[in-house]
Amino acid sequence: MQERIAEADAAFKAGRIEDGIRISEALLNDEPNAPQALYRNFSSLLFRRQFYEKAAHWALQGTKAHPRDVELWNLRGVALRRLGRLEEAREALDAGLAVQPKNEALLQNKGNVLNDLRDGPGAVAIFTRLVKAHPTNAEFQRSLGRGHWRAGDLEKAEMRFRLASKLKPDMIDAWLDLSAVIADARGPENALETLDEAIALTGSPRLMEAKAVAIRRSNQLRRADKYLRELLESQPEAAWIHHQLGAVVSDWDRERANRHLRRAVELKPDDVEYRMALIESLARSRYGDEAQHLDDAYAELKAVRQMAALSNGAHLKVASEVLSRVCDFDGLDEVCDFTETGRLWASQGRHTALLSQLSRVRTAEDRDELVSQHRTWGDGVQERTARYPLKRPAEPRPDNGKIRVGFMSSDLRNHPVAYFALPLFEHYPRERFEIYCYSYYQGTEDVLQKRITDFVDVFRWKQDLSDFDAAQMICDDQLDLLIELGGSTHMNKLNVMAWKPAPLQASWLGYPHSSGLSNIDYLIVDPYLAPSRPELLIEDPLLMPASWIAMGELAFPERPMNLEPPQVAKGHVTFGTANNPYKYSREMLRHWARVTAAVPDSQFMFVRPEGGTATFRDHIAEIFEAEGVARERLRFEAIRGAHMPFYNEMDISLDTFPQTGGTTTCESLWMGVPVVSLVGPALFERLSYSILSNAGLADLCVGDLDAYLETAVKLATDVDRLRMLRRELRPRLKASRLGQTKAFAEDFYRMIDAAVTARRAQAVEPETAA
Fold first, then answer.
1. Which of 23, 106, 289, 600 is the most buried (most CB within 10 A)?
2. Dihedrals φ, ψ of 507, to 5°?
3. Does residue 247 register a pLDDT over 80?
4. 628, 597 in Cβ contact below 8 A?
5. Which of 179, 169, 110, 170 is nearest to 143 (CA)?
6. Residue 105 pLDDT > 50, yes or no?
7. Tens digits of per-residue pLDDT, 35-82?
8. Are 652 and 709 in contact (CB under 8 A)?
9. What pLDDT sits at residue 770?
10. Cα 28 from Cα 730, distance rounded (Å)
């Protein structure tokens, strides 16, 4: 045995690590009752070399021979912690503590595992004991603070972090924890003073980066830009500065953002965080060659997946977005599990990621799971916002007999949300209502934003405002009802609703599902849009009598439209879509392919900017070819923004499912192109059903896939009906509630009046009873 030990030692000393490991493992396999020191030394070496799986294994084998060796139990516990196998780590440490209950190394490591498991009370119990024994140990104080933080006692956490930073002023992690808990308790802007103090003491780049992040999270983006550019002058090769600059300026200068993000990757090519930030920005780049940006993002993602397995929630979100856009469904299935990943996103507060879940719903259980994930997100946000409440006005506003309604969206500009909302600003009854608008848009004012500003009573456009300050601003305005239009899309502030700055709150238009916040009272729907099962909404439905939207003239002008179906001139039917690929799924594309295959010589046209990407085209073609549709029958038009004329070359629009179209369905009908839609139980499965029903085309809404194929094929052969729809659909839309914008606004404000009046009556009932 001694000769083999010496042989292994010689290999390690010579730098032949793999040989040393091989010799040691062979020895221990042959000599399972080897001395404790051999197991300890080998497991410790493996741990130092970051072979955590092997370290955990050989520490366990050692405990089989030496069950009372607490050092081996400790080594196994810390190795398992590094692997993220926290429950197993706790079991190993508990086994050691059963032998030596007062062993401080075991206690400290178990406390750290409990903090990782978010078992705050358990961690507090352990570190309170250690702190009593060692009151000047800064690491124990910090860990006790983390336990209080996990337990929700932010005041005690802050006190412990302050003590740790005083005991050891150069302890960067203590300062970072202190600033983070202050941000958690009182908002990120309140952490800046602490970070400035820490930077003055330590000069740490990590703390400088934390300051930049705190400024950015306070939504003071231009201040963050200035701070980082000043740092860059003296540290031009600091990768973290380029990384943070890219994140800060992406809202208004994507090209500059990409330059900084690329430089960060060049300076630190092994940093997965930096690569994922570049991937996200490239996928969202609209300047220059959009298809090339997407190709680059996909190539970078492949490289990252070769470097490391993706488990971080933020990274999974970015990967999901890129893989969805190029229709790499195999990759998407490998990276994201509907239940596990969705719950991770929800628990981490990643609401924007939940939008991608809609297209992956298959069953009734999936729909319920999706509601649960949104509730998890909402409960987490409301728990955090409750820690720093708003200051409510001491006196009610003077009663002028009017209802004050607020509309909150950063899309009140040249954007589809504004197009649909505009009739409500043009036609509101001024004798009864006051309208306030709130936007946090980071760009410059355009013509439509100016137009809305001129229509309404108050338009508050605040670019550098934290969520809390936005909520306080709205609270100070003393609204009767606040309506959010943006969901969690770019530059919007859904979290503001968690503070409930208005006594009544509603969601409308921007997000096709319950947001998850119980503080939102209503979701505005119509009889067609309302889910077939009440459990699929978290809010109460606020019901419009006919349609929940109207097609304003600005969004739907008198565009040129061919009066003959394209098949008359071309000799074949053209199916098509302009829907975003995040709504696609493998199963949906298969059914589109089956419809196309069922109509001889027909073609399918994708009017999407992703069509310029070879990867997107190849993935689509592969699915269609498997159903008997040759690649030559597919047409890709790589267009963004200028897609409307292509409806003149489309006979029939096939709707996405389970998440259906909204704006695209309206656009298709406006151009005389009928839409075949599959209707499901949830709100996001009924958007087109509402539009088509209000347009008098309910027969094109079906309840199962067989009917979907049958309806599409039958319509494709009915040239007379297609010709009639080309000529009559637009006048029909104008005559319906979809096109009668003034009547739509009357319906909307009548509904709002009733809801607010009922709320006011409820508020005075207790006083009347008394």
1. 106
2. -110, 145
3. yes
4. yes
5. 110
6. yes
7. 888 889 889 988 998 889 999 999 999 999 999 999 999 999 999 999
8. no
9. 41
10. 81
CB 589 within 8 A of CB 326: no
Task: For residue 514, give every residue at least 6 positions away whose Cβ sits within 8 Å of its Cβ, in sequence order, or none.
Answer: 371, 374, 507, 523, 536, 537, 538, 539, 683
What is the pairing mode between strands 574-577 and 603-607?
Answer: parallel
- Model's pTM, two decimal places? 0.84
Q: Rounded CA gap, 147 and 131, in Å? A: 12
Helices then strands, each counted (H, E), the chain: 34, 13
CA 532 – CA 179 distance, rounded (Å):
47
Task: Determine the Cα angle at 316 with ends 314 and 318, to 5°.
Answer: 75
Mention every residue, 6+ apart, whose C-beta is less than 8 A from residue 569.
none
| Contact between 495 and 518 (Cβ < 8 Å) | no
Contact 190, 175 (CB under 8 A): no
Q: In angstroms, rounded to a whole number, what is the distance separating the alpha carbons of residues 207 and 490?
A: 27
> 153-191 b/e with 16+ CB inside 10 Å = b?
bbebbbbbbbbbbebbeebbbbbbbbbbbbbbbebbbbb
The pLDDT assigned to 765 comes to 63
Angle at 262 between CA 258 and CA 266, to 5 degrees: 170
Dmax (CA) of the chain: 98
- Picking from 146, 96, 94, 99, the residue whose alpha carbon sits closest to that of residue 120 is 146
Report the residue count for the chain.
770
List the structure tokens of 318: 């970015």
Average pLDDT of the chain to the nearest whole number: 94
Closest CA to 618 of 303, 301, 331, 289: 331
pLDDT at 768 > cutoff 70: no
Strand, helix or coil at 738?
A: coil
C-alpha 110/C-alpha 67 separation (Å) is 18
pLDDT at residue 761, as a whole number = 87
- All residues at 6 or more sequence positions from 19 whose CB lies less than 8 Å from its CB, including other chains: 11
Angle between helices 416-426 and 741-769 (to 10 degrees): 70
- The pLDDT of residue 732 is above 70: yes
The phi-psi region of residue 625 (left if phi > 0; otherwise alpha if psi is between -120 and 50; otherwise beta) is alpha
Burial 665-679 (b: 16+ CB within 10 A, else e): bbbbbbbbbbbbbbb
pLDDT in tens, 516-549: 999 999 999 999 999 989 999 999 999 999 999 9
